Amino acid sequence: MTGLPLLPPGFRFGMATSAYQIEGAFDADGKGPSIWDTFTARPGTVRHGEHGRVAIDHYHRYAEDVAHVADAGAHDYRFSFSWPRVLPTGTGTVNEPGLDFYDRLVDELLARGVRPVPTIYHWDLPQALEDAGGWLSRDTAYAFADYAATLAGRLGDRVRDWITLNEMSVQVLYGYALTAHAPGRGLGFGALPAAHHQLLAHGLAVRALRAAGAATVGVAAQHFPVTPAGDDPADVAAAELFATLTNWTFADPILRGAYPDAVRDLLPVRDGDLEIISAPLDFYGVNYYEPTRIEAPRPGRDYRGVLEVEIPPDLPFAPVPPEATSRTDFGWAIVPAGLTTILTTLHDRYPALPPIVITENGASFHDAPPSPDGRVADERRTAYLDAHLRAVLDAISAGVEVRGYYVWSALDNFEWAAGYAERFGLVHVDRVTLRRTRKDSWHWFRSLIAAQPG
């Protein structure tokens, strides 16, 4: 396929990051500890024992990083706030030096002509709130709403577009149901109350942001097609349950105002909660990386290594490798058509679906260091992004309203439990010097944006 994919006029291109993955500056300004600070301090939780205490030092290098976003011609920059940097214990007195950092970041973005699109929560819960129950406690949802109101009160005169939470499903499943991510609770189905409280937090934050005059409000949800490994009714039932837990438990309450039947009785819903959760949104963020294939567990079969995390053998579903002709260096299947499928599925499932923004899509390849002439060749990443943008075009042709696409990520960063080995960035970051170098994919992205219709 030749030429650059051309999206509809007005389509917005952006880059995405998150606070814990890039900021560093663990104790620079009075920031409190988060669950990820605690989690990474435990031996064996993160590859090579790595952590985000320094990360890529975006806290001190934000102006340089904003320049990489702006020089590419990106319209939007999706970043996240660090809750414990703003409120060290999650509630109470604002840490003014911490909030000042986001003042500076927003001003720098606007000065460079880039629209800030902040995410209020991207997994770094203040440890003090986790100690009080974390997302298993309903009180955390109300603390989150107060936190959102604090941010809107300071930045709402310059920030018009807000995302409440990122990938609630991943934090609940990886961090509360399993032990792969912070806080590492390992509760199995006992983690589902955390799902409801995050969804309630989302709805309460939408209310707080609207009250503060926010222009547009959305959420960033991870979605992917789930298919059975075969026609066996047990496999079909296992795939349906997995899809319910990973996709529809989180989307249905927001977009339908009700939970799926399979989980309804497992959630601590109170009168009025679903009305709060289902408040209308201005856009719906979709994060997509790869599809999933599921079967009913077979005795004696080894399912290790199929997913990024290991699913315990006593659960009623098991992952098998999705069909794909190639994979990223993270081992994720490259299936651009899966993005089209999940977008059209959302469109068909939810008659009131708001316009969609692809709030994350990208790939980790283990790029070589910059060559002597300063080049970072990453043709596979360019091909990946090109193919997925064409998949977005296919969804638009099928009637889905997609208004934007954000690459994950702007820069190489701390990839949670995988540490620093996985590189998703359009900009290479040297792990020793922290020097930034624009990859070939960054130059391609700049050319792509420049080629778009007005």
From TrEMBL:
<comment type="similarity">
    <text>Belongs to the glycosyl hydrolase 1 family.</text>
</comment>
<feature type="binding site">
    <location>
        <begin position="415"/>
        <end position="416"/>
    </location>
    <ligand>
        <name>substrate</name>
    </ligand>
</feature>
<dbReference type="InterPro" id="IPR001360">
    <property type="entry name" value="Glyco_hydro_1"/>
</dbReference>
<keyword id="KW-0136">Cellulose degradation</keyword>
<feature type="binding site">
    <location>
        <position position="408"/>
    </location>
    <ligand>
        <name>substrate</name>
    </ligand>
</feature>
<keyword id="KW-0624">Polysaccharide degradation</keyword>
<dbReference type="Pfam" id="PF00232">
    <property type="entry name" value="Glyco_hydro_1"/>
</dbReference>
<feature type="binding site">
    <location>
        <position position="21"/>
    </location>
    <ligand>
        <name>substrate</name>
    </ligand>
</feature>
<dbReference type="InterPro" id="IPR033132">
    <property type="entry name" value="GH_1_N_CS"/>
</dbReference>
<feature type="binding site">
    <location>
        <position position="122"/>
    </location>
    <ligand>
        <name>substrate</name>
    </ligand>
</feature>
<dbReference type="GO" id="GO:0030245">
    <property type="term" value="P:cellulose catabolic process"/>
</dbReference>
<dbReference type="GO" id="GO:0008422">
    <property type="term" value="F:beta-glucosidase activity"/>
</dbReference>
<dbReference type="InterPro" id="IPR017853">
    <property type="entry name" value="GH"/>
</dbReference>
<protein>
    <recommendedName>
        <fullName>Beta-glucosidase</fullName>
        <ecNumber>3.2.1.21</ecNumber>
    </recommendedName>
</protein>
<dbReference type="InterPro" id="IPR018120">
    <property type="entry name" value="Glyco_hydro_1_AS"/>
</dbReference>
<feature type="binding site">
    <location>
        <position position="289"/>
    </location>
    <ligand>
        <name>substrate</name>
    </ligand>
</feature>
<feature type="active site" description="Proton donor">
    <location>
        <position position="167"/>
    </location>
</feature>
<feature type="active site" description="Nucleophile">
    <location>
        <position position="360"/>
    </location>
</feature>
<keyword id="KW-0378">Hydrolase</keyword>
<keyword id="KW-0326">Glycosidase</keyword>
<dbReference type="InterPro" id="IPR017736">
    <property type="entry name" value="Glyco_hydro_1_beta-glucosidase"/>
</dbReference>
<dbReference type="GO" id="GO:0005829">
    <property type="term" value="C:cytosol"/>
</dbReference>
<feature type="binding site">
    <location>
        <position position="166"/>
    </location>
    <ligand>
        <name>substrate</name>
    </ligand>
</feature>
<keyword id="KW-0119">Carbohydrate metabolism</keyword>
